[in-house]
Amino acid sequence: MLYGSQETQNKRSPVRGRRSRERRTMTGIGLLLTAAVLSSYTQLPAEANSWWSLALNPIQRPEMYIIGAQPLCSQLTGLSPGQRKLCQLYQDHMVYIGEGAKTGIKECQHQFKQRRWNCSTVDNTSVFGRVMQIGSRETAFTYAVSAAGVVNAISRACREGELSTCGCSRTPRPKDLPRDWLWGGCGDNVEYGYRFAKEFVDAREREKNYPRGSEEQARTLMNLQNNEAGRRAVYKLADMACKCHGVSGSCSLKTCWLQLADFRKVGEHLKEKYDSAAAMRLNRKNKLELVNSRFNTPTEEDLVYIDQSPDYCLRNETTGSLGTIGRLCNKTSEGMDGCELMCCGRGYDQFKTVQVERCHCKFHWCCFVKCKKCTEIVDQYVCK
Ligand SMILES: *[C@@H]1O[C@H](CO)[C@@H](O)[C@H](O)[C@H]1NC(C)=O
Ligand SMILES: *[C@@H]1O[C@H](CO)[C@@H](O)[C@H](O)[C@H]1NC(C)=O
Ligand SMILES: *[C@@H]1O[C@H](CO)[C@@H](O)[C@H](O)[C@H]1NC(C)=O
Ligand SMILES: *[C@@H]1O[C@H](CO)[C@@H](O)[C@H](O)[C@H]1NC(C)=O
Questions:
Q1: Could you check whether the bond before residue 367 is cis, i.e. omega within 30 degrees of 0?
Q2: Which of 117, 261, 282, 375 has the fewest CB atoms within 10 Å, i.e. is most exposed?
Q3: CB-CB neighbours of 165 under 10 Å
Q4: Is 239 in contact with 4 (CB distance < 8 Å)?
């Protein structure tokens, strides 16, 4: 049995990191990245070619990543020069980065399924299409949730022994853990996941060298802030899990370890951050500052944006908005999924559709459930 802990934990700040072998490795990467920036840098349009595409080009053959199969890194689309270097050094991580990005995108689609912009992917090269060229709230969420996906996937992969450079979490025993409980087990390595994701995901932004005060520089700062907020969400929500031992469930002995939260929780947390995201602009010192100084200054856990969102009502090739024509809406809801808001006042068409559901389910000894199929005619509403 697993118990979620009510107690707050003494997790250390991820930023301080650890003085371990891993840390030295990461410093090495830093140097490598710098080298990559100096050697070759081609400017790409905003998101035309992003590491997100790893989510869509599933890397199906992990065995290709064993050292020696280097050509693979040059075949992967969407990597920046620094990310390509990281790929070469950490080939076994790439599958999990792809998985993490996919988890993030799926969560984004879940959180936004009833909204005009529904996080739908467009094609396998640009993933989200031109919409990401706008520094909007939606873009902020997308960066955060995909960075979070990578932390999640890498942390778990460490724990499962899939990566050569990390293993179980080495988070020190929380101070408030009752004395007779054991701290051990193999925890998700959130520290490593955090640090690797920072190197990999941020590489792309750190390679850029835009003129001071430019719109592109503001966007780079925005992306970095939102990547960080995403990573911290995973770190913050990871909690202690415990297992009982002892005579017939007496729970006289417990073993506890650090465990990632369900990714849905991360999605919900970031959705709240999306709702409270702060509008920013570049100031004279080349830092982002609040547009409206009456609001609270965002912390590193908060999302920020620099552009107003388009209304996403109509298809627009320039902004990449897909529009809401043909989207399902809810006739009785007054929220974003309601026909009024979803269809942007254009009205809707009503359809009758047949829905097949499992029903009259019966439990049979032992052990299966048998159901009947019931059909029901339901009304559906679709935006004009
Ligand atoms: C997109 O993916 C499809 C099938 O997965 C592939 O045939 C096509 O070449 C890809 N397009 C690009 C531009 O990579
Ligand atoms: C698309 O969006 C841009 C920017 O908001 C706007 O200037 C343009 O008129 C739009 N085009 C269409 C066809 O609606
Ligand atoms: C998301 O929106 C697009 C464009 O409006 C639509 O084609 C797609 O089916 C939608 N996806 C879902 C899951 O509703
Ligand atoms: C439509 O919205 C109403 C009110 O929010 C809700 O009770 C109902 O379950 C929704 N219907 C569907 C099909 O989602």
A1: yes
A2: 375
A3: 15
A4: yes
The CATH code that applies to domain 324-383 is 3.30.2460.20
Contacts 24+ apart (CB under 8 A), 128-132: 128/47, 128/52, 128/320, 129/320, 129/322, 130/46, 130/47, 130/317, 130/318, 130/319, 130/320, 131/319, 131/320, 131/321, 132/46, 132/47, 132/50, 132/320
Answer for the pair 65, 95: CB distance below 8 angstroms, yes or no: yes
What average pLDDT does the structure give for the chain? Answer: 81
The two structure tokens encoding residue 288: 């982002």
Among all ligands shown, which has an atom nearest to the Cα of 308? 2
> Could you give the CA distance from residue 98 to residue 69 in angstroms, rounded to a whole number?
18
What ligand is nearest to the CA atom of residue 136? 2
This prediction's pTM: 0.80
- How many CB atoms neighbour CB 265 within 10 A? 14
Q: Give yes or no for residue 322 CB within 6 A of ligand 3.
A: yes
Rounded to an integer, the average pLDDT of 354-376 is 88
How large a percentage of the chain has pLDDT more than 90?
52
Q: Which atom of ligand 4 is nearest to the CA of 334?
A: 5
User: Which of 112, 114, 117, 118 has most ligand 3 atoms within 8 Å of CB, for mutation?
Assistant: 118
Kindly report the protein residue whose alpha carbon is nearest to atom 14 of ligand 2. Answer: 316
In this prediction, residues 197-202 reach a mean pLDDT of 94
CA of 378 to the centre of ligand 4 (A): 13
Interval 24-48 mean pLDDT? 36
| DSSP strand pairing (278-282 vs 304-305) | parallel
Q: How far is the CA of 129 from the centre of ligand 1 (A)?
A: 15
Q: Whose CA is nearest to atom 6 of ligand 1?
A: 124
CA-nearest residue for atom 8, ligand 1, is 124
Q: Where in the chain is the domain with CATH 3.30.2460.20?
A: 324-383
Mean of pLDDT values over 154-181: 91
- The mean pLDDT value for 108-113 works out to 94
- CB-ligand 3 contact for 57 (6 Å cutoff): no
Q: How far apart are CA 60 and CA 46, in angstroms?
A: 27
21 pLDDT exceeds 60? Answer: no
